[in-house]
């Protein structure tokens, strides 16, 4: 992560290493979690022993991938959205995002859009939105009847189309 810092002080000198937890050499993929010190609670004070050690601990930030399922024509949600919790630095390719495309009754999958536009490489932001768009299926049935009756003159034709097309 980052190299250690050593302060050379003398007995009786004041010191404060609280700001050192915000080390600019630590990747922004990490967040500060906690610290330990010897002696205890020694992140600031007066030098009273030969060696004071402060250890700062960091963890990868948590990221959320929100997956939405929308009707392409209306923009309305057609299935419950899903939230995937992951960590910064995880390869998008390892998350198998294509597996979140669903079979939705009455719809066919159309396309996927993401925010940000390109999601490749590693997770590097708090929230990524993946929208799977679906086209609503429609059936057009053409019947051929003798005028004034429901007597069929020929078999019906069925056209499979989509709403709005």
Give a written overview of the molecule.
Helices cover 0% and strands 50% of the residues. The chain has 165 residues and is an all-beta fold. The strands form three sheets. Strands 5, 6, 7, 8 and 9 form a five-stranded mixed beta sheet that branches. The two termini are 55 Å apart.
Set out the fold topology.
Elements: E1 14-16, E2 30-38, E3 44-46, E4 53-60, E5 62-71, E6 77-87, E7 107-115, E8 127-145, E9 152-162
Provide the low-confidence segments as ranges: none
- Please, what is the average pLDDT? 91
Q: So what's the overall shape? A: rod-shaped
Report the end-to-end length measured between terminal Cα atoms. Answer: 55 Å
State the domain count.
2
Q: In the CATH hierarchy, what is the superfamily of the largest domain? A: Putative peptidoglycan bound protein (lpxtg motif)
Helix content: under 10%
- The CATH class of the largest domain is Alpha Beta
Number of strands: 9
User: Major beta sheet, specifics?
Assistant: 5 strands, mixed
CATH architecture of the largest domain: Roll
**Hey, roughly how much beta strand do the residues contain?**
over 45%
Give the oligomeric state of the chains in this entry, treating copies of one chain as homo and distinct chains as hetero.
Answer: single chain
List SSEs in N-to-C order: EEEEEEEEE
CATH domain topology of the largest domain: Ubiquitin-like (UB roll)
Number of helices: 0
In terms of structural class, how would the helical and strand content be classed?
mainly beta
Radius of gyration from the CA trace? 30 Å
